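User: New here, please read:
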Amino acid sequence: MVRRRRTPRDQVRRPAGTHHVLADVHGPVVAGWLGVSPPCRSTRASQPDFGLSASREVNGGGDPSVFGVLIAYVDESGDPSGSPQRGGSDSYALGVVVVRSEHWADAFDGLINFRRDMRQTFGIPFRSEIKASSLVRNEGPFKGGRMSASQRRYVYKRHLDVMARLNMRAFSVYTDKRQLEQRGALSQTRWLVWETLFQRLSLMHDRDEPGSKSPVLLMHDEGEELTIRGYSRKARRFLTSGSAYGTGSLRLSQRWLIDDPVSRQSNHSYFIQCADLTAYASTKRMIPGGARAARVCPPSMWDALGEACHRPANEFAVRRDPTLAPGIVVRRA
């Protein structure tokens, strides 16, 4: 069968304004192909903005000056649901390690060099996972008793101390589960602590760099991904924080978080391992452990953070009660 050659009359003609719409969407290159002039961008003000204008007004401007990204690594210590009276942990805490995107490469290289030094000094395998439970219980890379408790305490302290030199900051959100159980709020433990964490990260987004915004990319240890994703989506749309002056609550920014939290295996991330050590040190600062734990992580271990401790996390609470440890946010029911 011989096909008849198509003529311009056979082609479906688009409405006259369609070429301009295509040119407006796809840019000046497509405009050149279509033989039309791209419309002025100022004419787009009459098009629907899908509610973005109102959102910009609420959030203090649609395109704030962005000064890098805050990458927050999170790990937990303790279990969020077990009753302390039935073998569950007395506390639950989230350790947070924050590094700005412009400092990340240097911090990562610094951690690699630090782990190389640990391997040369103590023979700790370069790719092994160093977590608080392994140090305290002499497990994992420390199994076999080849390192004394004082040596493992030194390794723990060095991990906290190195963060300040690598432009990393750390804080913790802590709650006493015994008090929550007395108030009938034990089932809300995980949400209460994560909500407080989101509040602090939202405030960091607003205040970390004066005059600019710092969006947050959150990475956490694997486990409970669906739960944490649900928490973050709820917090992104409706998150409040109590006023430091006792005048009610404040509505926090809706644009502080970049996408959903990212789950990482802790044995593949030195940063999450540092967050684990931070979380455990905060729990032992608030509730000192037994003799075995105290030999490796005494209550004073939290002070090893030094300049890496993110004091603004609970600065108003410390002003009211100077006995509180800087950088440990205490959440109550």
